[in-house]
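Figure 2 data, in text form.
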Amino acid sequence: MALAAGGCGGGGGGGGLPEGASIAPASAIAFVSVKTDFSSAQWQQVVKLAGHFPGTPQLIAELKKQTNGLDFNRDVKPALGQEVDLVWIDARNDGNDVVGLTKPHTKAKLAALLKKSRSKGESKAVTAQVGDWVAIADSQAKLDRFKTASTGDKLAGDKDFKRAFEKLESDSSVRAWISGDFVQSAIDRGLVSGGAPPRLTRDVGELHALSGSAKAEDNGAGIELDGLIDPAPDPATFNPSLPADVPAGALLYVSTTSLDAPLKTILRLVGKSVPNFNTQRAQVEGVLGITLEGDIYPLLKGESAVAVYPGTAQIPRVLFVQKVDDEQKAASLLRRLSAIAQLSGSIKAETVQLGGESVEKLTFTGTPVTIWDGAAKGKLFVTNAANLAEQTISGPASSLGDDPLFRSTRDAAGVPGKVAAFAFGDLENGLPYVLRLARQSGNVVPPEAFANAKPLHGAFVYLVKDGDALRISGFQTIK
């Protein structure tokens, strides 16, 4: 499987390998390549986007202060080549076993840059010539290990590295790769320490590589993330329709389809990790009179969404919507769940009328939380706001699908007709809302935080099938 996320239509891929990959050893666990061709169109786009943020001049001034008056035009541009790469030779020393690579315009300028950029108390940078490149590290021991490893096979010749990296657009500002085996082995070790059997994640597939990139565009920034997994997952896709059925004003909206499939996978893995889990699950189903196979999974086969709206000082309003084929069965299941919840003694369940429909109202005693759930117009819904429940039943006066920011961000991201999942974030209103909540909670939020959040408008991320691959594409509008 290949996972990718790219801006403005989801990344074209087809990028070549960075030159530094021909120097980096094949045993490296991670590699990051930064485009430092300061005359390129991509760099000009980066500068243009940075100019939208009022904090950029302050950031530059602070960097100068921390680096003994380091000047970008005088000290940085003349020193670096068109590409700067970072190579992680292993994961020891808390991830600090890193070697930098560049082809400097002049070695003297690079030496001056390294000297001037060194913070007080920081180790002196050590350099070594490796072919046409200069390798940089904070110790001679790291450089020696890098040079020894580099005498063998190179990262550019690694099949999985090439497959993952070539999916990224070569003119991106930053491109990165990490060994899939390293990541998956680390996850498996963590699961084993929690009691899971060895190599549990291999039950889903073999992770060969992860890669990613970031690219500046005219109206924002795109990201691209790639992964190679064998065998390739085959998620269901859908043509999103629920945005037309939920109210406008959502700060966050996340949608997918066929939730039953990942839920089955998760429970299968849990069953392999937790002793007697499947037996206990069957016992609970018997006591409740509700089964996953007969009651829950069939309801989760259609399109579903979670929308988050501004709420009270502490609790946002949240709406979950699930398209269902059988409204009566969905409503019956919700009533049964409400009756079971009431047995706890801390929840009061009652049937009330909203929008001309009977819905379940669950009041959590001693808390400000109340839940409304029901089924209407081919949808099951659960929410903590009565007005959201009523609009879901009656139909919203203004829907998310008609929201100008939602539509413009979706168009900027180039979202296709069918997706496996997607998420939309209204940062124009959402970030100020979060910052206000933080301030109300007693945290210090400087005015500059609001000013620097203002250029961020909408964000859209989506997942699609692409032949034998999956691609996640993301775009952030900046104005």
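Caption note: The chain has a mean pLDDT of 90.
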